[in-house]
Amino acid sequence: MPELPEVEALAHHLREHATGRTVVRVDVASLTVLKTVSPSWTALHGRTVTGAARHGKFLDLDCDGLHLVTHLSRAGWLRWADSLAAPPPRPGKGPLALRVHLGPPGEGPGFDLTEAGTQKRLAVYIVEDPATGVPGIARLGPDALAITRDEFAELLKGRSERLKTLLVEQSTLAGVGNAYSDEILHTARLSPYATSGKLKDDAVDELYAAMRQVLTDAVERSVGQAAARLKGEKRSGLRVHGRAGMPCPVCSDTVREVSFATKSFQYCPTCQTGGKPLSDRRMDRLLK
């Protein structure tokens, strides 16, 4: 899933390459991707792109006051092209959900919004005000790269959630997902199962510093990369997430995994849990 660094990099790419161009045509290949009815996507035609921004993990293309807002969810992506095919795409064929032409079709640049797999969760909103027109943005907590240390400490007070749960809850803290929460907790040397509200001051300092470091480093690696390279750039920078069974780059212990119905997280026992593996109910059942 694209998280704060990748969405920030996509917003930067659009600011660099789309700003000042005119939306010539929007092709909708999957009507289910549109989560708003009015204004219609045709209202974007003829508007000039005036900017691009990020709200948590939402990508916002400002078209002279009318916003094309996208949440890429788990398997969505933005694919930029210097030239897009002129014929409108056939609905329901392949991963393409929506195409934006920023020049004459067949000649000018633009981008596709695509989604792999069968779980169609890619969401597109066309609104005048993202803060009020997109429910997910209205519910966002403070941005993970904008919150101060004192605000972060206040946010943790009295919370009973596990750290892993709190870090990925967008209404609490915006921008962090499954992958970077694993990286943040590993860098901070904290257990994913630690109780948020019971952290001592030095642990809060470590967690906040780790969050800033992991996300800032990822943004710096990602911004300026071509959109097609961002997924590979993300994977190359991960130390524990997606590396179950491999040696921890810090201590060489084996990176472990805890799995749930639809997702999993990875951690290092030596670095994060005092050498004790966390219970994985899926594996516990297999070993009985």
TrEMBL record:
InterPro entries cross-referenced by the UniProt entry: FPG_cat, FPG_N, H2TH_FPG, Ribosomal_uS13-like_H2TH, Znf_DNA_glyclase/AP_lyase, Znf_FPG/IleRS
Catalytic activity reported: Hydrolysis of DNA containing ring-opened 7-methylguanine residues, releasing 2,6-diamino-4-hydroxy-5-(N-methyl)formamidopyrimidine
Coiled coil: none
Record flagged with keyword Iron-sulfur: no
Record's keyword terms, sorted: DNA damage, DNA repair, DNA-binding, Glycosidase, Hydrolase, Lyase, Metal-binding, Multifunctional enzyme, Zinc, Zinc-finger
Names of required cofactors: Zn(2+)
Domain FPG-type, chain residue ranges per copy: 239-273
Pfam family of the protein (one): H2TH
Formamidopyrimidine-DNA glycosylase catalytic domain span: 2-93
Keyword Transcription regulation: no
Family stated for the protein in its record: Belongs to the FPG family.
Protein known as: Fpg/Nei family DNA glycosylase
